[in-house]
Amino acid sequence: MVLIRFMITPNTLQKGDTVAIVSTARKITKEELKPALELLKSWGLKSVLGKTIGAEENQFAGSDELRAADFQEMMDDPNINAIWCARGGYGTVRIIDKLDFSSFTKNPKWIIGYSDVTVLHSHIHNLGVETLHAQMCLEIENKTEKSRESIRKVIFGEDYLISFSVDAYKEACGDTLQENTRLGFIKGEIIGGNLSVLYSLVGSPSEMKTEGKILFIEDLDEMLYHIDRMMMNLKRSGYLKNLKAIIIGGMTQMKDNKVYFGKTAEETILDLVKEYNYPVILNFPAGHILDNRGLILGREVKLISENDKVILEF
Q1: Contact, 83 vs 20, CB < 8 A?
Q2: What is the pLDDT of residues 31-40, one digit of tens each?
Q3: What are the distances in angstroms from CA 68 to CA 7, 62, 101?
Q4: Which of 121, 123, 133, 288 is catalytic?
Q5: Separation between Cα atoms, residue 245 and residue 187, nearest integer Å
Q6: Structure pTM?
Q7: pLDDT on residue 306
Q8: Would you call 133 a catalytic residue per the annotation?
Q9: Residue where one domain finishes, among candidates 118, 136, 155
Q10: Which of 130, 189, 218, 222 is catalytic?
């Protein structure tokens, strides 16, 4: 007997609904959140700041206990319709085991963020609820309009897809875009997030389940040999073998030793999965880049890659 699991989509927001802003990781001030607060207001939404905003304990937005309690309160509050993480950094993994998701799974709401928030995405995915991998509050004003619009479209339940061509994306982002490899059309559930965080979750209750899914990965400020080490671990642990596709987002500000590693992050990943027969999409517009578009993790998507065009339809 085959067990079929259906992911739960959080409730669609309406004008007048309330979005909570909390920090599960690094500290942040209310001043830094002004552009995000103004954006929510322009969408007709109310906002509530959690106790972690302005809190400080070394690099964190308050103690582990405070950050956990703040997130828990917003999950359990029926008057909160979505939770938008203020920023990343490091710290979410320190509170994940302190959280009780029993109320959340009965009345799920959109959890929005990326980078360190990958901890929440991966953990909540295993509970059967979709989440939104998208720009956090910090620096939302410095991202593309498509980045901002992707959040609005998803939480308001509008039709949403990501489509880009080699030339258009190169012009928009100023990146040197490599050609997409292994063209094709597939359907599958999309999962993933920040590679370093996903790697750190292996062997824990929050680890990703990749069998038959589309894996999205991105990263920032990593040594090139670290990318190889992390991907080797995922490969040896069986996470890359039975995928339907890999989507590689921004591999931003990668670093090298004085003795060069000899491959870019993208080349390293391509080399490690070359034995598998599935599409690999390069330089996708998501991650620590200017054009950071939202991904509905846990949603079954259509992925079409042909010649110089890629379409991801949710």
Answers
A1: yes
A2: 999 999 999 9
A3: 25, 10, 12
A4: 288
A5: 9
A6: 0.93
A7: 76
A8: no
A9: 155
A10: 218
Q: Which two tokens stand for residue 65?
A: 């206990």
Domain-located, residue 2: no
Residue 156 identity: F
Whether residue 8 lies inside any domain: the answer is no
Q: Is residue 171 part of a domain?
A: yes
My answer on whether 65 and 178 are in the same domain is: no
Catalytic pick among 115, 150, 196, 206: 115
CB crowding 251-282: b at 16 or more within 10 Å, else e: bbebeeeeeebebebbebbbebbeeeebbbbb
Q: Where are the alpha helices (DSSP H) in 156-214?
A: 166-173, 195-201
Is 179 known to be catalytic? Answer: no
- Name the percent of the chain lying above pLDDT 70: 93
- Same domain flag for 308 and 165: yes
Angstrom distances, CA of residue 71 to CA of 29, 36, 65, 134, 244: 17, 18, 10, 18, 33
- 165 & 148 share domain: no
CA distances from 213 to 209, 218, 242, 279 (A): 8, 16, 8, 12
Residues 310/186, Cβ–Cβ less than 8 Å:
no
CA distance 91 to 64: 8
Amino acid at 34: K
Are 183 and 41 contained in the same domain? no
| Residue 240, token pair as written in the block | 């890359």
Q: Is residue 137 within 8 Å of 36, Cβ to Cβ?
A: yes
Strands of 18-22's sheet in order across: 46-49, 18-22, 82-85, 110-113, 131-133, 295-297
CA atoms in the 13 A half-sphere facing the CB of 199: 19
**Domain range enclosing 96:** 18-155
Mean pLDDT, residues 231-252 taken together:
96
Question: 306 and 169, same structural domain?
Answer: yes
Instruction: Supply the DSSP symbol for 60.
Output: B
275 is a catalytic site residue: no
